[in-house]
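Let's inspect one such protein example.
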Amino acid sequence: MDRSLWSMLLLLPAIGLSVALPASWLPGDYQNTSDGALQFLTDYNSTAEEVLFDSVSASWKYNTNITDHNSMLQVNAALEEQAFSEAWGMKAKQVFTPELINSLKPTEKNLMVKIKTLGPANLPQEERKEYNTILSTMDNIYSTAKVHPQPNISWSLEPHLTDIMANSRSYKKLLYVWEGWHNASGVPLKDHYPRFVELSNNASQADGFADTGADWRSWYETKTFEQDLEKLYQTIEPLYKNLHAFVRRQLYNQYGPKYINLKGPIPAHLLGNMWAQTWNNIYGIMIPFPDKPNLDVTDEMVKQGYNATHMFRVAEEFFTSLGLLEMPQEFWDESMLEKPEGREVVCHASAWDFYNRKDFRIKQCTTVTMEQLFTVHHEMGHVQYYLQYKDQPAIGDVLSLSVSTPKHLKTINLLESVTSDPETDINYLLKMALEKIAFLPFGYLIDQWRWGVFSGSTPPDRYNADWWYLRTKYQGICPPTRRTEEQFDPGAKFHIPGNTPYIRYFVSFILQFQLHEKLCEAAKHTGPLHTCDIYRSKEAGAILKKVLQAGSSKPWPEVLLEAIGTNKMDASSLMKYFDPIIKWLEKQNVNETLGWPDFDWVPPVPEGYPEDIDKNTDELDAKKFLDEYNSTAEGVWNAYTEASWKYNTDINEGNKQAMLEKNLEMAGHTLKFGQKARQYDSTDFQDGSVKRIIKKLSDIERAALPSAQLEEYNTLLSNMETKYSVAEVCRDNGTCHPLDPDLQKIMAESRDYDELLFAWKGWRDAAGKVLRQDYKRYVELANQAAKINGHPDNGAFWRSLYETPTFEEDLESLWKELEPLYQNVHAYVRRALYKKYGPKYINLKAPIPAHLLGNMWAQTWSGIMDLAMPYPHATQVDATPAMVEQGWNAIKMFQESDKFFTSLGLLPMPQEFWNKSMLEKPSDGRQVVCHASAWDFYNRKDFRIKQCTVVTMDDLITVHHEMGHVQYFLQYKDQPVSFRDGANPGFHEAIGDVLALSVSTPKHLQSIGLLDKVESNAESDINFLMSMALDKIAFLPFGYLMDQWRWKVFDGRIPPTEYSKEWWNLRMKYQGLSPPVARTEDDFDPGAKFHIPANVPYVRYFVSFIIQFQFHKALCEAAKHVGPLHTCDIYTSKEAGKLLGDVMKLGSSKPWPEAMTMITGQPKMSAQPLMQYFQPLIQWLEAENNKNNDIRGWPEYAWKPSSAVEDKTSKVDFLGMSVDSPAAMAGQWILLVIGLVLLVATILLAYKYRKSRKPEKSLSTMELKQKD
């Protein structure tokens, strides 16, 4: 048995098994005469006022303070009222004959019939108690039901659940609230309702009705009542279906095809109201003309300091302006106008008549909103009508039609002005339709269901099924989850457990427009009916007074006939009121399905439900949030970029601190908006761009760190970059060399093994070693940030930027495809170095010493093209001499690059670029970060390059590469900030490089005057392709392994104790390189590469070196190029420029495979265009390496080059001691002398003993040889 019902039954003994009425409440003796009847009615009326006051008072006490004690008092009072009704009803039946009753005046006859109708008082005493107890129990269950999102949190219907249903646009949260309420309030009622129906029918049948439904319908005193209602509904159904179709389409735009079927019913939880009875709460996503005024004066009410009492005073003034009555003092003293703290109440708004002709109250949990202001007028209309629980509550609503007009709201100073134009009218009428028209089928079907229940056509085992059949049939809505007979969803609506007939509201919504039209005529209104306000019209008030004073003393058709001239309900006034919106909706719905032919459709349950219900799924709200983010991010990012630029172009402590400060501000901004972004569940957003940006913003990277760790992280990065940028290698004579240009020049131009070693080892000692401890801590913090953002480690975060689950496998597959080509280049170059340095330093079966390849990191080998030239006497493509001879400088190089872009129809560099870029290394003594980089200042006009440019062909290529970045910035500058990036990190690098593929062709260099002639022969082609291969192919394994190392560092596969060992294992495995001198864990060679201390992911360059050839091939096809791919120059091709520009404009707004498809026609990374580009060289290398019997690979991987000649500035290891070279030399001489002495001694001993033995080499001699 239900706990609440059990507690009620326990209280029954206190009530007693029979109710003894006071003698003064019992009827006397009366004669069956007219005088006797009149005396009876007079006595009944005076006694009933006393009885009903007690009964209503007990009910009020319970409704405003729900306790078991007050429930007992309410049940007891109800039993007393029913005993009173029974006593007087039975007396009337016994004394007054039908003939006498029929002879009475209509008013008296009507009252006598009512007295004789006993209702529940017909029931035997015990059943009567059971009936009252069930009602009280059901009331209690409904009013105390809660939804518990967490064990220690409870949401009541008012205000929590109602607010969520009204304001949330989260599909999951709305579903959780809807399902939670229906289960919490409805399910517990299921066991009580069938018995209630049985007892209620017994009571009604005792009064001569077929069932309770017939009893309720009799109140309307119209034989054709049901038929009249159906006819009315058929009249308004087309309007409802048009409104339904329009709303369904807007919800489709909000929630998408997954949750909205454009031919099906609408899920019931999406309409802004727990019961989908009115839809005005979702007006915000329905507004026909958003730029036109929308009527909501809530903010103005709050601003003016409205409270509940003032709202009721405003309503009272409306009534008095019509000549109607003020509220009596008791109303203000006794009403419950706000939800009280600390006690359970029935929040459902209601008006109460205490039957003593002076005490009238309202019970309402009022909040200060425009909608509640209308409700206040509605309830005060009841009070004016003295109609608690009467059948036609149209009066309050007809007044609300005036109160809600812009004209009236302006009159009472809640609107500054009234705008009157067709679009504003449509906005207003749609809002009214969402309240009035949306309600009609609901108002009709609730009692359709109850009438079926009372008649038996809907048995208990079909309660829920028939409920949802009617809701779908009339409303076109469906449950958001499958509902079964385990549930009792009708019980989730107050009027079902509250036993309040509901068809009155349907009748009201028809009659109010009939009354409104009549009152507007009396008020001399001119213009459309929806603009009428009867405020202050005494003429309209006089008509209302007629209706009010009639009460229920006359049949309502008579009251209606006297008031408005017709005794029929008619929807024509309603249709007239809504005529403009009817026509507008019909136009909007030309291609929509009216109705819901997919009758049985229900939406799927969201993934992960009921998790994440607190996340926001309102896409419109997300768009507003992103607008705010975009506008603020531009300012914050610009400030940081300016500070970073200042530091990078003038390294000093002040600039460093300023940059760190701006970095923290940017992190704060990222954190603030990232946390907001995480509040959204974008799973079902329709706009892919919004989903992408929300996802990007939700990953707040380093900003996720606690403030102390964030500051430490930023300082670490700044310190590492500073140490790298100011590092120098110094000679014994005090001369110090920075990386750029000195050491770079040595590595590229020197062919002295020792000098190269000096630069190579010196740079690693100066820039690498010093970073080791910093880097270890950086890894810890970077991983901490990644984990807070939901990634296993920082490497996983970096890989996530490619949005490709198989990214690592795809890269390995590409590398395996390219490895044979790389090994052929490696074998050929190793042979060339062997010719230069000989077997002492080069082993033709071993890795190449890493310092001999013309570049500090051996990442590109074009610096040794002079050693690896296939045909030295054929044409060589090197524009450097011509550039120097023609007096080129940095500006000229950038102007030429700009000219290349504009020749393609792309954008020229803006003036800010030329004014603010740093295109050469400053000569004023400033220390700068020379590493070439392109900068976007996030204000859509300021773009710069920082480069210590030197006049060489290599730097000319770099200029085009960096300017490619800036072109990308220019093309996507109007995208949201979050999309101002490459389609993936590799795209940004590839755009600049793909242009360099054209720039570096002999054809292009000739066209810009840097080459006298273009030789087209096999030898020149092989020379050209070899120079490209030393740049592009040589780079591939380095571009791949840099992040292979970091990914393993981040995920722990490479511990700090093996940083150096695993770095060189990877360089050996992929590049076939070895360190020229022994490396230990005291060294940190990865740190000697800019991207490691600067925290720049590197696999983007590997990706770039693949996809740039895909782009190149696609652009050459667009440019109608004919001939081998390596000879293509897209210069001046507008077609190629458009293809490239269109892809760049996307930024990162689309997944990169879509951008790839735009430019290449297919979505995958492919090595085939690269292989096609180098095909002539591939064939040549195969033949050349076969001719020389060169091994591909480095099977003798443990071989080390001779290390006898060491760096002149460094110490050498001698017999386990670190000593200067001169000391080591002296030691060697000493050992040599000792060795000779020992040798002579050995010979003498051998001779002395005359033994035939071979002389053994001394240990010292072996040691000396090992030192050679």
About this structure: The first helix runs from residue 3 to 15. The two ends are 100 Å apart (CA to CA).
